[in-house]
Design goal:
Mean pLDDT: 97
Number of strands: 15
Number of domains: 2
Bound molecules: pyridoxal-5'-phosphate
Distance between the termini: 19 Å
CATH architecture of the largest domain: Alpha-Beta Barrel
Low-confidence stretches: none
CATH superfamily of the largest domain: D-amino Acid Aminotransferase, subunit A, domain 2
Order of helices and strands: EEHEEHHEEHEHEEEEHEHEEEH
CATH topology of the largest domain: D-amino Acid Aminotransferase, Chain A, domain 2
Helix content: 25-40%
Length: about 290
């Protein structure tokens, strides 16, 4: 992939190069994390599952009473344009909307106009071997706010959790919410398989309803794999037959060990493998 350094960042209503892609210091995203975002996967230069991402962006913004500066279709057109502007074949498009720039106050300012940023980046892929062997994860406390269903740019607790995983030599931090159960990963949704049945946390304020999660549930139904949306405990995770996480960038990633303890046989199990293959097939079918 040869990357172009031309005008590939959409900011303040136009495409500019990295040197000109600047936002004001009083942008509320910068000072208050007052914004929402999406990450759309790009395969072969084309955006995958674009509409569900746009719909989730609209929902996140509406939950924060934030307007989008363009129509959803116009944002979609920018997302489709972004990979070609940078020569990105295998990568992602990042979309961010903030409430805009205004003198710093906590309440919504009257005169701020929402600001939109769109650009494509090449993907830093996980090593192919990890999909064969399964990855390591650790369980950490879920210290996020109570509206995890909104894809807000306030990712500090997620970043702190991911750093704990990194320091433990693990790929992902799995979040345990006191009184609720296992919720999700720091940047992924979590699934287990027990007695042939798939389980994942219900779409609720405790998790981000992942686009990949929903596709995997759909694929499971097509493959006649029973699935339940319920919260499970850390003990149920550790004693599961299989476990995996899903996200736009990782797709379906099997987990071999959690907190150093093997999950099932300690390698990707049959249900996980079926869903990994079905997901790749879905990508092929949509992208061509
Ligand atoms: C907290 C959290 N949960 C789940 C996901 C997976 O969502 P998706 O499949 O839409 O990428 C993400 C993705 O970044 C995330 O940050």
């Amino acid at each position: 992939m040869t990357l172009s350094n031309a005008d590939y960042i959409f900011v303040n209503g136009k495409w500019v190069g990295p040197g000109e892609a600047l936002v004001p210091v009083e942008d509320r995203g910068y000072q208050l994390a007052d914004g929402v975002y999406e990450v759309v996967r790009v395969y072969g230069g084309r955006a995958f599952a674009l509409q569900p991402h746009l719909d989730r962006l609209a929902r996140s913004a509406a939950e924060l009473e934030m307007d989008l500066p363009l129509t959803l279709d116009e944002v979609g057109a920018l997302v489709k344009e972004a990979p070609g502007r940078r020569g990105v074949e295998d990568g992602q498009v990042y979309i961010q909307v903030t409430r805009g720039a205004a003198p710093r106050v906590h309440h919504f300012p009257e005169d701020a106009r929402p600001s939109l940023v769109v650009y494509a980046s090449p993907l830093r892929r996980q090593p192919a071997a990890l999909y064969e062997t399964g990855a390591d994860a650790v369980v950490v406390p879920d210290e996020r706010w109570l509206r995890c269903d909104i894809k807000s740019i306030n990712l500090l607790p997620n970043a702190l959790a991911k750093e704990k995983a990194r320091r433990a030599g693990a790929l992902e931090a799995l979040l345990l919410r006191e009184g609720v159960g296992m919720t999700e990963g720091s940047s992924s949704n979590l699934f287990i398989v027990r007695d042939g049945r798939l389980e994942t946390a219900p779409a609720s304020r405790w998790i981000l309803r992942g686009i990949t999660r929903d596709i995997v549930l759909e694929l499971a139904a097509q493959a006649h794999i029973p699935a339940a949306e319920r919260f499970f405990s850390k003990e149920e995770l550790l004693s599961a037959d299989e476990a995996f996480v899903t996200s736009t960038t990782m797709e379906v990633m099997p987990l071999a060990r959690v907190d150093g303890q093997a999950i099932g046989a300690g390698r990707p199990g049959p249900v996980t493998k079926t869903l990994m293959a079905a997901f790749r097939e879905r990508v092929r079918a949509e992208i061509g």
